[in-house]
Amino acid sequence: MQIKDLKPKQGSVDVIVDVVDIGDVREFNKFGKPGRVSTAIAKDETGDIKLTLWNEDIDKVKAGDKIHLTNGYVNEWQGEMQLTTGRMGKMEVVGKAEAGSDSVIRTNMPLEKYDKDNSGEDINVEEENIEDADSDDGEI
């Protein structure tokens, strides 16, 4: 499966992607339980997509890693698709991003600080609203 083939509300997603960017970790409490979430940018040769990382998955992944997401879920937030492990998915780091990739790896900076993509065009990156997150988003 490739990023270009993903559709909102699609489950059973099996995809291998390169993690290009990882945003700041945000902490929250929901139903009395603490949690952490971060929004990353993942890409393959067909495109890119936001990748929602939950709790311990945040610590597993670094910018430049290649990950294999199995049984993942695609949700949509404010008209933009986002890939997540969901309740039943699994994420595994399977290597480093391929050498020669045109991705720019930027770390330790929140995603909202990026105002340009590689083409120099303005982009709009918005924070995910934790309170309104889809119930299929993960371990909260």
Short description:
This protein is mainly beta and 140 residues long. It contains 1 helix and 7 strands, in the order ββββαβββ. The protein has one domain: Beta Barrel (OB fold (Dihydrolipoamide Acetyltransferase, E2P)), CATH 2.40.50.140.
Assembly type of the chains comes to single chain
Radius of gyration using CA atoms only: 14 Å
Quickly count the helices: 1
- DSSP strand (E) fraction? 35-45%
Q: In whole angstroms, how far apart are the ends?
A: 27 Å
What is CATH's topology name? OB fold (Dihydrolipoamide Acetyltransferase, E2P)
State the share of residues found in helices, binned by percent. under 10%
Q: Mean of the pLDDT scores?
A: 78
Helix-strand string = EEEEHEEE
Bulk shape? globular
The low-pLDDT segments are: 100-140
CATH class: Mainly Beta
The CATH homologous superfamily is termed: Nucleic acid-binding proteins
The total domain count is: 1
Topology of this structure?
Blueprint: E1 13-22, E2 26-30, E3 33-44, E4 47-54, H1 56-60, E5 65-77, E6 80-84, E7 90-96
Parallel strand pairs: 4-6
Antiparallel strand pairs: 1-3, 1-5, 2-3, 3-4, 5-6, 5-7
